[in-house]
Amino acid sequence: MSSAGGFEAHEGNGEHRGDDERDEYLGRDEDEFGGAADTGSAAGGGAGDGDVPSGTGGTGPGGPPRIPLPRASVEDGGQPLPGPADLGSPAPVPLDLSHDVLKSLLGAWALAACSPAETAAVEEHLGACGSCADEALRLREAVGLLHQPESLDLDPALRTRVLQSCLNRRPPGIPVPEWASPYDAETARLDALLQDFGDAEWHAPVRLRWFEADQATSRRTTVAGVIAHLLSVDGLVAMALGLEDPLAEVLERDKTREQGSVAGPAGRTEAFWRTSHFPPTRSVRAPWREQSHSLVRTVSFTGGAGGLTVPYDDFQLPLHDAMLDRAFECWVHAEDIAEAVDYPYDPPAPRHLNKMIDLAARMLPTALAERRRAGLSAPGQTPHLVPAGAPGRSLRLEIEGAAGGEWLIPLDSPAAVGSAEFEVAHVALDGVEFCKLAAGHVPPEEAAAGQVGDREAIRDVLFAAAGLSRM
Amino acid sequence: MAQKDVPPRWDRKMQQRLARGEAAALGEMYDRFASLVHSLAHRVLGDERAADRVTREVFAHVWEHPETYDPKQGPLRSWVAAVTHRLAVQRLRATETAALPQGESGSAQELESKLRRASVAARADYIVHSMPAPLRAALELAYFQRRDYRQTAADLGVTEDEARRRLRLGLQLLSTAHNVGTPPGYGGAV
């Protein structure tokens, strides 16, 4: 390198890789390129010959040396340099390369990514060729603009703050319904978590856990498999809204196998998993995200009007509850994923969490009735017959924390009304803990923080809550 | 990294949706562009909270004035970058001017050069972010991984000629970041 004596004035810059290096040159070229810097078209147009217009007419004979030395070479990256004996000859003999080849080396030269012989050849050439010297200078300055990308982890709470401040400044003509905003927020949070996942994360094993017939159940999959699961089950809402079933093609292929029901969440997910030729990859992210965006968009237009319901396997939910349910599932599985890849993940915003808890509390009376029908309730318990709409025996569910509140759960019939007057038991739980119970992630025996009153009623309600979970 | 192959149709549709006040469209805009906006603002301002604030201003502008985007001038992405650039530099100028000792012309010059450096750095980030992926991959190998161009060629499974071409073209694109006065990719038409 030192053979190119004319460059020595810039010796000091040779080692720089950061912001300082370009200062000296910054003022010079700024007005020389008038064209729009649209990188897309520049890439297309410039790809052929690679010549970017330069306004300077080459280095004048008497002008100052303008070419900085390349940055420290690859070999200088903290490792010991080879001894002189290893180098063969003391200075590389410049190669005899054509102008075109030398020009093509300018980018690699600027990045110190050439062989020593090529470097010497380029530098000799720069003393003789004005247009290459101009370009070399420009490319060397460009190297100084390369930065290690900063961490792009955005605070997930920023989304809510930014959107809210926008909506305050200009009220929306078509708002996202209140009951869809938890789904909007949770899908955005999960998507942000997935943002920087590499292959290792996408294929990290995840165990889905839920309760079935009072037993903890689980199923092994991967992070990508979980997103496939969310895509499949969100598809139930999509179909109810008249959108395309994301599994249409999969189910068509699966028909030949006749492996039982493919109607509900688990059936659809299993069909997706077994029909894919390969295990799901990161490629499931885009369709999942696209569908979640189009669900939010579509419910903004349809609203809750028309009494739309979403059929699951063996039950159905009104649209707004289904959207809450999907928000809940999205969070629960985002937790599964975060745990699998060892990332932190926060619970939903309190006002969203509160709605999810409310949904579970509203589903409990029906779940209790089903347990009775299935013979899962404690033996010997005889439910009091309660006329529809009348107050009945109730359990007070007290949820602590910012998302908390109190719910009176009628115990004997979904048609009965919860009543403080007929309260027979009181359970107190933290909000997140209750959600983990309802997700089947915490055994009912270990869930309650505080309980007073009818033991059997409490046990029944806690098991019913765990039974709300599904794959 | 960023979604590249978004058809211009998406841009036009998004503009229409924003114009009629569809809150869901605002959310989609945020999901697509927030990390770009925030990182550009952060590159200019070097401060997390200031970048948050600019992010809020950018989306407020997009939401309140979607009509100021002209699809004929370029992609929505470039426009968002240009708005970010303008607002971030504006904020930097305001905060730095407030901190300036009074009546010292030397500091005023320093301020100008600081603003220029921040502008160029942000434009460079945007260019790297939006250049064709093969070029970016080559630059990343040669610069960040310190591979020479032959190793870069081998890593990318391309010829040495092609590796040289990509490195040169990538730097040529990057060098346009010095075009001061031209917000990235949008010809200054904000």
From TrEMBL, chain B:
GO terms for molecular function: sigma factor activity. InterPro entries: RNA_pol_sigma-70-like, RNA_pol_sigma-70_dom, RNA_pol_sigma70_r2, RNA_pol_sigma_r2, RNA_pol_sigma_r3/r4-like, WH-like_DNA-bd_sf. One of its GO terms (biological process) is DNA-templated transcription initiation. Keywords: Sigma factor, Transcription, Transcription regulation. Residues 29-94 form the RNA polymerase sigma-70 region domain. Gene3D superfamilies: 1.10.1740.10, Winged helix-like DNA-binding domain superfamily/Winged helix DNA-binding domain (1.10.10.10). It comes from the Bacteria. Belongs to the sigma-70 factor family. ECF subfamily. This is RNA polymerase subunit sigma-70. It comes from Streptomyces cellostaticus.
